[in-house]
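Summary for the steering committee. One of the milestones for this cycle was to obtain a three-dimensional model of the protein with zinc ion bound, which we needed before selecting residues for the alanine scan. The sequence and ligand used are listed below.
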Amino acid sequence: MTRRTPSTAPQTGAGQAGRYRDRIFDDQRHDPYQTKGKVAGPLRCGDCGVVYANGRWQRGSAPEGIASGLCPACRRIRDKLPAGLVILDGPFVPAHREELLRIARNEAGHEESEHPLHRIMRIDERDEAVTIATTDIHLPQRIGEAVKRACRGELEVRYGSDEYSVRVHWRR
Ligand SMILES: [Zn+2]
């Protein structure tokens, strides 16, 4: 269900809620990290080794003497600025932490094999919560849906309304 609140309406509940929508309105929404410093020629990321050629970043061998740079994912990692967050919390979490992390890493592995810039950049673990930060806005939903498939629970996905961001909250 989509519910939009006019920006003039008084904010209720958490102040952050108004910054998020519950689905992507424009899947082609632009990631500022994708266009910032657009590259003309072939480039190899000095941090992770992905190669930019023919208009996209991909895994593979690089031609001799290729220029070195940073891919958008590694720029985010250096800036500590995730595009996506997955929050797994609730009393179910402490006893199933390893299972949840295995699911998340497994999904991340599949996603990265298709989209080398979609990655987990950080995992924070607390007693009843695991927070996973990602370099893109697609992986969090993939992780959330996989966790829900495997462990049931409640899943909420909120995309940023005016920025390239997503927040996925799973609870059980
Ligand atoms: Zn990189």
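Key point for the committee: The chain has two domains: 32-77, 82-171.
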